[in-house]
Amino acid sequence: MKQIFIYNSIMNKLAILIVIILSTWGCQSKYPGVPATYNSLLETAFTNAGKNATELQKALSESPKEQREGMAFIISHMPQRDLSTIKADFLLENAEYAYKARKKYTWCATLPDSVFFNEVLPYANISEERDPWRKEFYSRFAKYVEGKDDLVAAVMSIAKNIKDEVNVKYNTKRSRVDISPFQAMKENMATCTGLSILLTDALRSVGIPSRLAGTAMWTNYKGNHTWCEVLIEDEWKFIEYYPEALNKSWFLADAGKSDPNNMLHWIYAASYKPTDMPYYAAPDGRIIEVVDLNKLPNKVRPQFEEMKASMANSDKKETLAWGVNVTQRYIDLYHESIKNSPLQDDELMANVVVFDNDNTSKSDSRTSCRVDVQLSEKNINFGYSPRKTDDMNQFLQFKLKKETKYKFVVSHPESKINKEFTITTGNNTTQDIQLILK
User: Fold this and answer.
1) How confident is the model at residue 414 (pLDDT cuts 50, 70, 90)?
2) 122-341: which CATH number, 3.30.470, 3.10.620, 2.60.40, 3.30.870?
3) 44-63 pLDDT, tens per residue?
4) What are the tens digits of pLDDT across the range 188-201?
5) What is the gyration radius of the CA atoms in the chain, in angstroms?
6) Mind telling me which InterPro entries this protein's record contains (predicted)?
7) What are the sequence ranges of the domains in the chain?
């Protein structure tokens, strides 16, 4: 019996070893130094690159061992436009200086590969021309972070000095919205998208994870905007080319009034790696794919109709940048800023929620609508009330005057909601206002 047991034990171990060997063989990478998970992605990329495949293969094979997975990541998720045009030398130089920054700066060396690959290593942000900016920017901006161990100090040093370093200022006469770094420096001008591309690339050049963020249209329809985000201690914070401080800028009030139910008004962050949707804040007109033009206000409809016509007559239907919906974070930041700002003696904080019915204790009774606040028939503020899925402690907040009569206009065109409420505020520092539709 003992011999049989030993025999069976040996055979079981042998069977397990065979399974492991076969599994390992089946998962072997076709590309030395690159995890097998990239096999199919790289094969597809090389096929789609056509005649330019040899350049991409050269970039991969000539990458130093420690850079090879990063190069595989870049090639695997490269837009079609770049697959057929970008050369090996461009990619190798971009990777060389990105990895130099990773080796030199502590904040970059400690990043997970997933963040380094997606928010430091990419050679472009959205649809801008592909300039070889990495080497020059590494040289230009290293001096501003020299000797700095604090990442916030490094970010602010870059942001405060970049306009003088590159000699680019805000000007609507720039040649294109998504102007590339070198073209912006040649013209000495850019608008918010081009300025944000410059700042993001400058931050990435010294190993600081950064990405574009923006909206295709504010909820008050006064325009769009683009800015930068940086990752600080695993938390994304925003910063502008003309900086105030992290998470502080003129646009926060507009961003905080974003409509979480309307993609036109979402806040998007850009991603090099594919997500479940494009970066709809990009200036290439992709947002018109998900917008019903008939529901737009007359003052902005011609702009979107022009975008639609331009898209129909061009080949710009490829996704050049992917997006992440970060709307709620900006709504939360705005409401947090309201809470942290002191109330005047004659002010109170109004906590507003809209309900479908009088069962105000249930989250399912809430409905997300636009709420406009009017004083003497003049609109003084607006926002979007919490949704059914939001925390029950979340409110739409307004600073209002005490003992004052206000009109609250609740609207949701698609649900045919349009109702007015007249409410007089009390004398306390806070007041809960429940707007019940039925």
Assistant:
1) confident
2) 3.10.620
3) 999 999 999 999 999 999 99
4) 999 999 999 999 99
5) 27
6) Papain-like_cys_pep_sf, Transglutaminase-like
7) 1-26, 31-117, 122-341, 344-436
Q: What is the pTM of this model?
A: 0.86
As a whole number, mean pLDDT of residues 268-282 equals 96
For 374, half-sphere exposure in the C-beta direction (CA atoms, 13 angstrom radius) is 13
Please identify which residue in the block is written with the tokens 């997975």. Answer: 69
pLDDT bracket for residue 308 (50, 70, 90): confident
Residue the block writes with tokens 């042998």: 14
- Written as six digits, the tokens of 437 are 């539709």
pLDDT in tens, 157-171: 999 999 999 999 999
Helix axes 88-104, 192-205, angle to 10 degrees: 60
pLDDT band at residue 310 using 50, 70 and 90 as cut-offs: confident
CA dihedral 369, 374, 379, 381 (to 10 degrees): -60
